[in-house]
User: Fold this.
Amino acid sequence: MAKLYFNYSTMNAGKSTLLLQASHNYRERGMETYLLTAQFDRRAGEGRVASRIGIGSEADTFAPGDDLFSKIATRLEQGPLACIFIDEAQFLENDQVWQLARVVDDLGIPVMCYGLRVDFRAQLFPGSAALLAIADEMREVRTICHCGKKATMVVRMDADGHALREGAQVQIGGNETYVSLCRRHWREATGDSAAS
Assistant:
C-alpha cells in the first residue's frame, strides 16, 4: 500500500544520502524512481540531489506554484514509477503537499519526502508543517550536537560566526552557514538568558 512519508531532521543528518540510497535500491532491482528537488537550491547544480559524502543523482525540480500531481502524472506517461523521492521537502507549499498526497491516494505510488523540520528560528517550514499534519509515516533522521546529545535545532551563522536570530526563513547554505545543535546549545547560541 502506497504511503506519504516524511523523513525529517536538522542540517547535516544525512537526509540526501538516505534518499539516494533508497532510490538506488529500487533502481538496482529494475524499478524506476522519480527524484524532485527545490529548483532554487543549486548547491549541487540545478536539478541535482547530492550528499556531502560525494554521491548524487540527476533530478527534476519543483518551484512555487508547480502542480506536482500534474508533473508526476506527465512523468508517468513515460513509464511506471515504483517510488517518488522529494529532497528539500521543507520548501514545498501546502498545496503541493496535498498534491503529493493525491499521488499516493489516487495513483498508488509511494512518495518519500526528506527535509528540515524547523528553521534557524525554531519555526516550522510551511512544507514541513503540512507534512507533519498529513503524512502517513514520519521518521526522524538523527544527528548529534557537539555535546553528543541529539541535535534538534539549527542556527544560522553570520560571516563572523555569530548566531543570527532574525532574517529570511530561506537562505541556501551548508556547513559554512548552519550548525545543528541540541535545544540547550541552540538556546545558548541564540542568546536565551535562561540557558545555562
Observations:
- The chain has one domain: 4-141.
- Strands lie at 4-9, 33-38, 48-50, 56-58, 60-62, 83-86, 111-116, 137-140, 153-156, 178-181.
